[in-house]
Recover the amino acids of this structure.
């Protein structure tokens, strides 16, 4: 039998996932000689043996790859046989190009068993990991992914860990974060009042802390007594308290300055989740996935969970423990814990121990700290699983971060040169587009201060370094005052401005690996239009290269600009006045004093500090205020979220009921011709005012309003279809995080036999905008 030799190059997420020991095992299975090593752009293999064995080996590489591996491409070339015996794993080689790297991965079942097995040497060790789990992105400082280029380089392995690390048949072979209690990082606890911080918090728990030798026991005591704990986790700090203790939750809200926005909750296991929430099989799969995101679930009534965890909200953001540290704490506490981002409002996550003690010392009573450095902050991801008109449960990202970043979004086109898309102002992410890979960053957040801007700039530099990308073009939003736009301009080079809603539709297209043109429906809060107005209720004829605005919600006043966004009651007043709708003694007016009414009236009449907007988000706000649901907000989209909660009876509503709602829309007008339409909402708002006067239940009005927006979308899309012969609709923008609006809109469109695209891999909100910016820039660059 002749002997052949093959060179195999594998690209994708193939480092830090047990790929080399997997190859080692395959080579031994088929008695092949050769070697394998990591390179900067993937994994290289040479194997030598009988042709049939080589063919089986190459087939198995793709079919039996480790669970965390994601193979993008396998190339095979025949090379000259060598006089060698055995198969070895060689040291990594650095060369031009860039490999894909794994996101941080939740603790695997094998490691979890060790953590809770008294006989195991890693019993109760909070940094237990292997090649199938543990930190990746948050500790990587450079490529190739080897321990010297991670923050674990500061912890030399003990002989036992070194033996595991060097044994190709051990599941910890080349697990870069490998450690144990002898040689690895450690956890300890400090009281915030005992630290060198200014304005330290209450010392009411000092007797409980009292220099205990078991930090988890002390943390458990503090949390059960109603205290607040700062916890250093995988990609930053959390702030935790007992989610069943109303006083503790209120205390945390006051200290953090987060007055109404729901808190995320971490629960011990899926059984605990079922006690507190309705959870579908698809939601369970998402909760227990290797990414372990926060999942928005319908909360059950009558449980001991504090209502103040998610005020006026019938859903709950739930996650399971995803590190041994979290598993140990949750098992010991035995209760759901609020687990919210460790920061002050609109600031980035606290990253290191010293900053956390200084920045969060006025919030937390004590801190659970450790000495493994976090190189790159990464906040928790958030997903939801809405039910579509077909009955399918469809996972939809709300925030794509830990567990997903920096895993790339594969696109169906190739960019001629690397592109940096800098994203928006709110919910910022940025995107590096290289070849057919769109590397979306972790969640950056609101670019409102220097701290977040510094985090943003450092994150861009980090991704450019590890993926060896030197962008030829920088894509940015049209808004001149966004800090992301200013960063792009200051950075220099070739710029590509992209209109906000064009980017939304391009993002949806790229997410679905689809081409245009499409009828793009972009519904959100704020987007800068080329006419200088604030867009947000848009119907576009769009592809990657260009867009045409064919229809939009009518422009209405924002009295006081930002003040109207913070005070939806001002919006309601301004909209009714501008549309000439009489304002009888509606209940919401009781919360608006006479002086504010006069000021709003003057602003609208004279156009003083009153920009115009077509925003769908602002229409939601105005209706929410009219119904007395929310006249003043404490967090973004609060009025719209509470309006949705009012309308939604629960997760089990039948399709028949949704269709019934669509049969009873409020009146509206669509004016114009084939070259453009304006959707008039005077009749809609007048009818709502009439129903309020008739004391129609607010929940019924809210449902009918949601259904009307769905019918408006379908009717407008139908007119565009007749004029332009298009049958595919792409839905994007933050309003489509509203599960009720999404389902009703899809149903209304599908009843008219439209093909509907929605987001699947990136959020419909501004967190997915950078993908669209990058896609638009790539097509402009190619042409």
């Amino acid at each position: 039998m002749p002997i052949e030799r093959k060179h195999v190059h594998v690209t994708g997420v193939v480092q830090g996932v047990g790929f080399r020991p997997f190859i080692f095992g395959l080579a031994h299975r088929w008695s092949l000689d050769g070697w394998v090593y990591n390179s900067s752009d993937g994994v290289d293999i040479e194997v030598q043996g009988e042709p049939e064995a080589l063919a089986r080996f190459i087939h198995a590489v793709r079919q039996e790859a480790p669970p965390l591996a994601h193979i993008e491409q396998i190339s095979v070339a025949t090379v000259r046989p060598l006089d060698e015996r055995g198969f070895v794993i060689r040291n990594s080689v650095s060369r031009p190009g860039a490999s894909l790297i794994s996101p941080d991965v939740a603790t695997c079942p094998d490691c979890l068993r060790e953590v809770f097995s008294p006989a195991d040497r890693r019993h109760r060790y909070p940094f237990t990991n292997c090649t199938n789990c543990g930190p990746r992105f948050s500790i990587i400082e450079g490529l190739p992914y080897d321990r010297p280029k991670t923050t674990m380089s500061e912890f030399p392995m003990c002989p036992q860990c070194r033996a595991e690390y060097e044994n190709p048949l051990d599941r910890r072979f080349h697990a870069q974060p490998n450690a144990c209690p002898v040689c690895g990082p450690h956890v300890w606890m400090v009281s915030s009042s005992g630290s060198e911080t200014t304005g330290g918090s209450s010392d009411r728990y000092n007797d409980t802390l009292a220099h205990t030798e078991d930090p988890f026991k002390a943390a458990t005591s503090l949390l059960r007594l109603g205290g607040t704990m700062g916890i250093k986790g995988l990609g930053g700090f959390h702030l935790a308290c007992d989610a069943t203790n109303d006083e503790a939750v209120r205390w945390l809200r006051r200290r953090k300055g987060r007055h109404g926005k729901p808190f995320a909750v971490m629960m011990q296991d899926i059984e605990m989740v079922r006690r507190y929430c309705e959870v579908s099989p698809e939601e369970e799969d998402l909760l227990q996935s290797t990414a372990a995101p926060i999942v928005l679930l319908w909360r059950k009534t009558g449980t001991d969970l504090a209502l103040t965890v998610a005020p006026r909200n019938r859903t709950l953001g739930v996650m399971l423990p995803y590190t041994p540290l979290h598993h140990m704490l949750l098992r010991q506490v035995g209760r759901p814990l609020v687990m919210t981002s460790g920061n002050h409002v609109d600031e980035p996550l606290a990253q290191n121990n010293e900053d956390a003690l200084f920045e969060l010392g006025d919030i937390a009573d004590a801190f659970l700290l450790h000495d493994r450095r976090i190189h790159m902050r990464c906040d928790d991801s958030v997903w939801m699983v809405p039910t579509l008109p077909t009955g399918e449960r469809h996972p939809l990202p709300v925030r794509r971060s830990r567990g997903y970043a920096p895993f790339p979004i594969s696109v169906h086109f190739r960019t001629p040169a690397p592109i940096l898309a800098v994203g928006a102002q709110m919910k910022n992410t940025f995107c590096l587009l290289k070849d057919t890979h769109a590397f979306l960053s972790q969640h950056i957040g609101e670019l409102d201060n220097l701290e977040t801007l510094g985090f943003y700039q450092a994150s861009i530099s980090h991704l450019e370094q590890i993926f060896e990308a030197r962008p030829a073009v920088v894509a940015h939003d049209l808004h001149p005052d966004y800090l992301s736009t200013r960063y792009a301009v200051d950075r220099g080079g070739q710029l590509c401005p992209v209109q906000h809603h064009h980017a939304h539709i391009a993002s949806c297209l790229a997410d679905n690996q689809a081409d245009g043109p499409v009828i793009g429906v972009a519904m959100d809060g704020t987007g800068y239009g080329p006419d200088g107005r604030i867009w947000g209720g848009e119907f576009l004829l769009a592809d990657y290269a260009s867009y045409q605005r064919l229809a939009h919600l009518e422009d209405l006043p924002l009295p006081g600009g930002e003040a109207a966004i913070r005070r939806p009651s001002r919006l309601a007043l301004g909209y009714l006045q501008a549309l000439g709708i009489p304002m009888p003694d509606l209940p919401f007016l009781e919360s608006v004093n006479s002086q504010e009414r006069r000021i709003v009236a003057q602003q609208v009449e004279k156009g003083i500090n009153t920009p115009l907007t077509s925003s769908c988000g602002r229409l939601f706000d105005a209706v929410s205020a009219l119904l007395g649901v929310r006249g003043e907000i404490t967090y973004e989209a609060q009025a719209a979220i509470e309006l949705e909660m009012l309308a939604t009876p629960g997760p089990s509503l039948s399709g028949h009921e949704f269709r019934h709602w669509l049969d009873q829309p409020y009146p509206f007008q669509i004016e114009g011709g084939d070259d453009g339409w304006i959707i008039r909402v005077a009749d809609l708002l007048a009818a709502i005012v009439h129903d309020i006067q008739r004391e129609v239940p607010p929940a019924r009005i809210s449902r009918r309003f949601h259904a009307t927006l769905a019918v408006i979308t379908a009717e407008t899309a139908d007119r565009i279809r007749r004029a332009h012969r298009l049958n595919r609709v792409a839905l994007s923008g933050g309003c489509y995080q509203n599960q009720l609006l999404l389902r009703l809109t899809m149903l209304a469109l599908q009843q008219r036999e439209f093909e509907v695209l929605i987001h699947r891999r990136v959020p419909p909100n501004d967190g997915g905008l950078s993908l669209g910016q990058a896609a638009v820039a790539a097509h402009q660059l190619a042409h």
About this structure: The CA atoms of residues 37 and 90 lie 5 Å apart. The first helix runs from residue 19 to 29. Residues 194-202 have pLDDT under 50 and may be disordered. The chain has five domains: 4-89, 101-184, 187-370, 411-506+770-783, 552-757.
